[in-house]
Write a structure and sequence with these properties.
The chain is of the alpha/beta class. The protein has eleven helices and twelve strands. 39% of the residues lie in helices and 21% in strands.
Length: 278
């Protein structure tokens, strides 16, 4: 509870609202009120936040094992998404020559967290040259489809891990690059903070975590009651990152390594790409 209150205070000090709403139209005055409504902070209740998301994603009718399923019906956006991500990584690695050298010399090691069928492993991480990739996904159904989607030869470079990100605890000094996209909303705030902290400790020297996800503007959050998902404001997400001990990568120019996907339709949430180090 103290952690949540620090997040709320951080948003208030930055003149950002800490109120939100949910998919049923209910308004919340604070972040605390949302999580209390979900059954947290009450020893007599058992929260079902993760059960909702697990049940939703494990249902083929809700989420087919296809690119369209991974992108919620927006498969037309996958190449735009991948193109922007490639450019972001290329620019980032230019400022991390030690990481780039490890990838070029021995392939390096990466992870795709919340991977689904491995869309980013196939479209981004393997083409970058990684020879060892941990593909982490909570749905066994989706993960079982990943080798076929990625392709037999490339799948031999992958280690498929069926685990929720709230429980994913990789060894220290493991990864050169970790990609986390369109999944942080499925973790509650304290699990997300701890998740970021564990990822930071798992990085090799110079290693990077990249977070790419939806953000909202007018409120601090919008919670989806159907699939257990929260879309946070950009400042809300940054506040959790700060609490985790991670920090945004700074370029030699002094600029933060944060960019925005600029070519999505106007009705799509704003999507930042944030490079983090520990």
């Amino acid at each position: 509870l103290n952690f949540i209150q620090r997040i709320e205070n951080s948003l208030t000090k930055k003149f950002q609202v800490s109120c939100g709403t949910d998919s049923a139209g209910r308004e919340y005055d604070s972040i605390t009120e949302l999580w209390r409504n979900e059954g947290y902070f009450d020893k007599n209740k058992v929260p079902n936040w993760y059960k909702k998301s697990h049940d939703y994603w494990n249902n083929e009718k809700n989420v087919p094992s296809t690119i369209d399923g991974m992108l919620g019906g927006f498969s037309v956006l996958t190449e735009r998404d991948l193109d922007a991500s490639r450019k972001f990584v290329d620019d980032l690695l230019a400022s991390r020559p030690d990481v780039k050298e490890r990838i070029c010399s021995n392939g390096g090691r990466a992870s795709e967290c919340g991977a689904g069928i491995g869309r980013l492993t196939k479209g981004l991480l393997l083409p970058l040259g990684f020879k060892s990739i941990d593909v982490v996904e909570t749905s066994a159904r989706l993960l079982n489809s990943a080798p076929g989607y990625i392709g037999h030869d490339d799948a031999t470079k992958c280690n498929f891990i069926c685990k929720g990100l709230q429980d994913f605890d990789p060894d220290a000094d493991t990864y050169d690059l970790i990609w986390v996209q369109w999944v942080v909303g499925y973790l509650n705030d304290w699990d997300l903070c701890n998740f970021f902290n564990r990822l930071g400790k798992s990085l090799k020297k110079g290693g990077i975590v990249i977070v790419k996800d939806n953000t909202c503007n007018e409120k601090a959050y919008l919670a989806d009651r159907d699939d257990g998902d929260i879309t946070r404001s950009f400042q809300y997400l940054l506040a959790i990152i700060k609490e985790s001990g991670m920090r945004v990568v700074q370029l030699e120019s002094g600029d933060d390594m944060i960019r925005w996907q600029t070519d999505f339709p106007d009705d799509i949430w704003p999507v930042p790409m944030i490079a983090l180090c520990y």
